[in-house]
Write a structure and sequence with these properties.
There is one protein chain. By secondary structure, the chain is α+β, with helices and mostly antiparallel strands. The longest helix has 132 residues. 28% of the residues are buried. 31% of the residues lie in helices and 29% in strands. The strands form seven sheets. The protein has a five-stranded mixed beta sheet with strand order 12-16-15-14-13, with no helix packed on it. This is Acyl-CoA-binding domain-containing protein. Keywords: Kelch repeat, Repeat.
Length: 494
């Protein structure tokens, strides 16, 4: 999309990903980088490309739609992939990840966004083993690290906490069943108390399970998600806005995930928000998604990823405000008041019917009629509000149905393509079988020829022996002849 002025985002349609037309040069395409948004700017650090780790710091200005590179005034960041980054005070904290650094424990780096200086922060306590593909979640003034894969490819499912006030690490002992060891999963904090872990993979399995850690009791649970069935995935990205967790991309090493999901963390209900087609950058593994605030409104910003090729495009989405659209009807004060008014109106009308034959006071009857009318008006108003809410819900359901139809069409198209490919492969197999049969026949003929060659060779050997014996006989005969003729000559001349 174009950049008409610096308020381009105000014209975006809700819940749709839009690629941005970037001015000037772009950074190298990559995946498994770290991303964070600060003051309308997207910061990208490191990542991986063609098996090489990157160490550059790229900044995308969401107002001017331009990229720039940060040159540090002091310090050098290590080339790293599969790391995490969070904003703390005026610094970006950059930790863990795979690099050529031989450190045995997790290192925490900082980048000062004012002085552009960087360095290692000294940490204390029980430092976790070095790793990549872990999740790091900010919880008040603490970072909670879960899982990952160490540099010996050992999978992890431990929980470590870094207190940012004291820079001290501690290991958390949890109860109940922990998630299976994994890496390249995502994590989110809900209600200031619950840590949610979704998906990820081991060396042979891709997960689609949800695990929840109660940070007060340190107890794991595995609640079941409702709604859309989440497919197994790793390398996906997630960001939260209120009670909503937006989940983008990921894959299973065979194909990328085209759906952007919305997980309501209060209700544990999953729905499809948007769907992309084919090898779209948003259906990549190792992409990032962040939230940015522009003029007081929240936007999602996605970058990078790998889906057969490395990507460096920037996509934005303007998510529809959802907390207002889906109030809890049965628990809201307005709904309770409406229900109370309905009950009151019903009771009052019933009482009026009972009392009217016995009372002759016209003023008394008029007062009751007016009260009933007021209560009925309140009921109608409340029902009107509920109608609006239901219409909004119906519109959302229709939109989700449209997405499902699109998904079904895509599935049918993919099935048709796969069927054609299968037929082609079957045809190739038939021709290959025919060629193999011909080759086997030729091999049989060659074997017969080899067998006949053996008998011919034996005949040749016999002929050679006969020839040798004949030559020896001829030599003996010649020798006898010479001896006989010599004796006669001597007799004549003697």
């Amino acid at each position: 999309m174009g950049s008409d002025g610096q308020n381009w985002y105000l014209d975006l349609t809700y819940d749709q990903w839009v690629p941005l037309s970037v001015s000037g040069p772009r950074p190298a395409a990559r995946y498994k980088h770290a991303a964070a948004t600060v003051d309308g700017k997207l910061y990208i650090i490191g990542g991986s490309r063609n098996g090489r780790y990157l160490s550059d710091i790229q900044v995308f200005d969401l107002k001017s739609l331009t990229w720039s590179t940060i040159k540090l005034n002091s310090g050098v960041l290590p080339a790293t992939s599969g790391h995490n980054m969070i904003m703390w005070e005026n610094k970006l904290l950059f930790l863990a990840g795979h690099s050529k650094d031989v450190s045995d424990t997790v290192t925490v780096w900082f980048i000062d966004l004012q002085s552009y200086e960087c360095g290692v922060i000294e940490t204390f306590g029980k430092l976790p083993v070095a790793r990549g593909g872990q999740s790091v979640t900010l919880f008040g003034s603490k970072l909670i690290m879960f899982g990952g894969e160490d540099r010996h490819r050992r999978l992890l499912n431990d929980v470590s906490v870094l207190d940012l006030e004291t820079m001290s690490w501690s290991t958390v002992e949890t109860t109940q069943t922990s998630p299976a060891p994994r890496f390249d999963h995502i994590a989110a904090l809900h209600g200031g108390r619950y840590l949610l872990i979704l998906g990820g993979c081991s060396h042979s399995i891709f997960f689609n399970d949800l695990h929840v850690l109660d940070l007060e009791t340190m107890e794991w649970s595995q609640p079941q998600l409702q709604g859309y069935l989440v497919s197994p995935r790793a390398g996906h990205a997630g960001v939260t806005l209120g009670d909503n967790w937006y989940i983008v991309g990921g894959g299973d090493n065979r194909s990328g995930v085209p759906e952007t999901l919305l997980l309501n963390m209060s209700k544990l209900v999953v729905s499809v928000l948007a769907t992309v087609k084919g090898r779209d950058p948003l259906a990549s593994e190792g992409l990032s998604v962040s939230s940015a605030s522009l003029d007081g409104e929240k936007f999602l910003v996605a970058f990078g990823g790998y889906n057969g090729k490395y990507n460096n495009e920037v996509y934005v989405m303007r998510p529809k405000p959802r907390d207002v659209l889906h109030p809890k009807i049965l628990q809201s004060p307005a709904a309770e008041a409406a229900a109370a008014s309905v009950r009151a109106a019903y009771a009052l009308t019933k009482r009026e019917k009972l009392d009217l034959p016995e009372r002759e006071d016209s003023n008394f009857k008029e007062v009751h009629v007016d009260s009933a009318q007021q209560n009925l008006s309140a009921e109608i108003s409340a029902l009107g509000e509920q109608k609006k809410v239901l219409e909004s819900s119906i519109a959302d359901v229709r939109a989700e149905n449209a997405n499902l139809r699109t998904n079904l069409d895509d599935f049918n198209a993919t099935h048709a393509d796969l069927s054609k490919e299968l037929q082609s492969v079957q045809g190739q197999l038939i021709s290959e079988r025919s060629r193999c049969a011909k080759l086997e026949a030729q091999i049989g003929e060659l074997q017969k020829m080899l067998e006949s060659m053996k008998s011919i060779e034996e005949e040749v050997q016999a002929l050679r022996r006969e020839k040798s014996e004949l030559e020896r006989d001829m030599e003996r005969a010649s020798s006898v002849q010479k001896q006989g003729s010599g004796g006669a000559w001597k007799w004549i001349t003697g």
